[in-house]
Amino acid sequence: MIVEMRIYHCAPGRLPALNDRFANITLGFFKKYGIEPIGFWTTLAGPSNHALTYLLKWESLAERETKWNAFQADAEWIAKRAETEAKQPIVERIENHFLSPTAYSALR
């Protein structure tokens, strides 16, 4: 198992729009493409409270490449994402990390 940690750094004031997009649009596309989220978090304390962090579970990098690329190429997803950012961008930058659990991790 591989866990992908993605951190979306939002433009100031745009985190509510990102949360809305995930809840009402993105999660439907994740389901369509078999993308399995582990969880989603906002930053309670830290350098910025304009971030959404989430984890995705993958069996392999090959699975991730196939499913993520199909999701990103979906014309309906592209159109809906563009609609949500028509007046103002939501995400300024994205970080992602691929994590491999240790032998003593509860999540393996």
Automatic annotation (TrEMBL):
It comes from the Bacteria. Residues 3-105 form the NIPSNAP domain. Gene3D superfamilies: 3.30.70.100. InterPro entries: Dimeric_a/b-barrel (IPR011008), NIPSNAP (IPR012577). This is NIPSNAP domain-containing protein.
